[in-house]
C-alpha cells in the first residue's frame, strides 16, 4: 500500500538526494493521503466505485471486476463478474451435461464430445434439407433421403428419389398400353414397331397395296388374304411393272432431251479411238452412234453415225459418216421432207491453230429421197452421208486423232429451219 501511495505523489524534487536511512514517514502526510478520494483500479473495466484510499482494499475484496482464483481450482484468475460464466462454459474442471444426449462430462471431455455426439441433429450431407441425429445419418442417406440415387425400374438408369417418378412418366423403356387395345404393353420406344409389325388388333394394309391391292384388315385376316390372293397379286405386280417400264422410258427420253443440244450443231467426242478402230477392223458393220441433238427446241431430232473402218464404197479404206433423222416429239408440226443443209467437220487437233487443216463435207438433202421424209417409229438404218469421208492414210498424216480422241462436228444450216 505504501508503494501505491508513493506512486500517487505528484512530484519528487530532483534537487535533493535522499538516503534510505534519512527517510521517515510523516504521520500527518500519510493520514492526508489515506483520506484522499480515489477510483477503483478497475474503473476502465466499468467499476463505478470511488471513495477514500483507505477503503480501496476492502472494496477490492468484493469488486466484481477484480480477478480471483477459479472456485473450481482450475488455476485461472477470473474476474468475479465472469466467474459464473467461466464455471459454466470454459472452466476445464467444470461438470456439465451434453444438451443432446444428457450425459455428464468434465469441461475438456465435453468439448471433445461436442461435434461427435450421436444424438446431435445435423443436416443431411446430400443437401436434401432434412436434419437427423448424427447416429442415423447413414440410414437416412440409404433409405429416406429425397436426394439419394435410385435406379429406374424400367431402364436401370439412376436418378434422385425426388425426380425418378417424373422420369418414369417419360422413360422410353416404360411399358405403355397399346392404343389399339390389344393385350400387349410394349415399351414406349417400341410402340411404333409394335403397331406396325406385331399388333393383333390393328388394321394393316396388304403388302401389295402399291401394286393396287386395297385389302386392309387384322393380321390374321391379312395372312389368310395373302394365301388366297397369290394369282391376283401376281397380276397386279405385272401391271405395275408394265406401267413403271413405260414411265422409265418416258423419263429416259426426258433426260436425254434435257442433255441434248438444241442449237442445230453437235460436237461429237469419240474417245478410245485405237481400240474402237481395232474392233471395227475385226468385225464387220461396227457402227458408232452419237448422242441425239435437235435443230431447235421444237425442231428435228437428228443423230450421227460413224463406221471407223468404212462402209459401202469406203469399206476398209476410209472412215464413213452419216446423218439420221429420228422420230421426234414435234414431228407433226414440222415441214417434210427435211430440206436443211448438213455439214460434217473433222477437226485437226494441231498444237498450232494456224496450221490446222480440218476436213469439211456438206450436202443439201434431196426431197425425193426416203431418208428425208418424216420418219416412222423405227428410223432409217443407215441414214445419208459420205461413205468415203476421209481415208485412213489421211488420218495418219494429220492430227485428227490426238491422245486417242477424235472430234467430229455435225451442223445443220439454221437459215433453213422451218419448225414452227
Automatic annotation (TrEMBL):
Compartment(s) of residence: Cytoplasm
Cellular component GO terms held in the UniProt record: cytoplasm
Name of this chain's protein: TNF receptor-associated factor 4
Keywords for this protein: Cytoplasm, Metal-binding, Repeat, Zinc, Zinc-finger
Organism: Euphydryas editha
Keyword Phosphoprotein: no
GO MF, any single term: zinc ion binding
Gene3D superfamilies assigned to the protein according to its UniProt record, in alphabetical order: Apoptosis, Tumor Necrosis Factor Receptor Associated Protein 2, Chain A, Zinc/RING finger domain, C3HC4 (zinc finger)
Principal cellular location given in the protein's record: cytoplasm
Positions annotated as zinc finger (TRAF-type): 58-111, 113-164, 166-223
Amino acid at each position: 500500500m505504501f508503494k501505491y501511495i508513493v506512486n500517487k505523489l505528484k512530484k519528487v524534487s530532483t534537487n535533493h538526494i535522499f538516503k534510505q536511512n534519512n527517510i521517515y514517514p510523516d504521520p500527518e502526510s500519510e493520514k492526508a493521503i489515506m483520506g484522499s478520494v480515489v477510483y477503483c483500479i478497475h474503473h476502465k473495466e466499468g467499476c463505478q466505485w470511488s471513495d477514500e484510499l483507505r477503503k480501496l482494499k476492502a472494496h477490492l475484496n468484493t469488486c466484481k471486476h477484480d480477478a480471483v482464483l477459479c472456485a473450481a481450482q482450475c488455476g485461472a484468475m477470473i474476474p468475479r463478474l465472469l466467474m459464473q460464466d467461466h464455471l459454466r462454459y470454459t472452466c476445464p474442471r467444470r461438470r456439465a451435461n451434453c444438451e443432446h444426449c444428457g450425459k455428464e462430462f468434465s469441461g475438456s471431455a465435453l468439448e471433445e464430445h461436442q461435434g461427435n455426439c450421436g444424438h446431435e441433429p445435423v443436416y443431411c450431407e446430400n443437401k436434401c434439407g432434412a436434419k437427423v441425429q448424427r447416429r442415423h445419418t447413414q440410414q437416412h442417406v440409404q433409405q429416406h433421403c429425397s436426394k439419394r440415387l435410385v435406379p429406374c425400374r424400367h431402364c436401370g438408369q439412376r436418378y434422385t428419389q425426388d425426380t425418378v417418378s417424373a422420369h418414369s412418366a417419360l422413360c422410353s423403356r416404360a411399358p405403355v398400353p397399346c392404343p389399339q387395345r390389344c393385350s400387349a404393353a410394349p415399351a414406349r420406344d417400341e410402340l411404333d414397331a409394335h403397331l406396325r409389325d406385331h399388333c393383333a388388333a390393328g388394321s394393316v394394309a396388304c403388302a401389295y397395296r402399291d401394286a393396287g391391292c386395297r385389302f386392309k384388315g387384322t393380321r390374321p385376316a391379312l395372312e389368310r388374304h395373302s394365301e388366297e390372293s397369290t394369282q391376283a397379286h401376281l397380276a397386279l405386280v405385272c401391271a405395275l411393272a408394265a406401267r413403271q417400264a413405260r414411265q422409265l422410258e418416258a423419263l429416259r427420253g426426258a433426260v436425254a432431251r434435257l442433255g441434248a443440244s438444241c442449237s442445230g450443231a453437235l460436237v461429237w467426242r469419240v474417245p478410245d479411238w485405237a481400240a474402237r478402230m481395232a474392233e471395227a477392223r475385226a468385225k464387220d458393220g461396227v457402227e458408232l452412234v452419237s448422242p441425239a441433238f435437235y435443230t431447235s427446241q421444237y425442231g428435228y431430232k437428228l443423230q450421227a453415225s460413224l463406221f471407223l473402218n468404212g462402209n459401202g464404197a469406203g469399206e476398209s479404206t476410209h472412215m464413213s459418216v452419216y446423218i439420221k433423222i429420228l422420230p421426234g416429239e414435234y414431228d407433226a408440226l414440222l415441214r417434210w421432207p427435211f430440206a436443211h443443209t448438213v455439214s460434217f467437220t473433222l477437226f485437226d487437233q494441231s498444237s498450232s491453230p494456224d496450221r490446222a487443216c480440218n476436213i469439211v463435207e456438206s450436202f443439201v438433202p434431196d426431197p425425193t429421197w426416203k431418208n428425208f421424209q418424216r420418219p416412222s417409229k423405227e428410223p432409217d438404218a443407215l441414214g445419208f452421208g459420205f461413205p468415203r469421208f476421209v481415208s485412213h492414210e489421211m488420218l495418219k498424216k494429220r492430227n485428227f486423232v490426238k491422245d486417242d480422241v477424235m472430234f467430229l462436228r455435225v451442223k445443220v444450216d439454221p437459215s433453213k429451219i422451218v419448225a414452227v
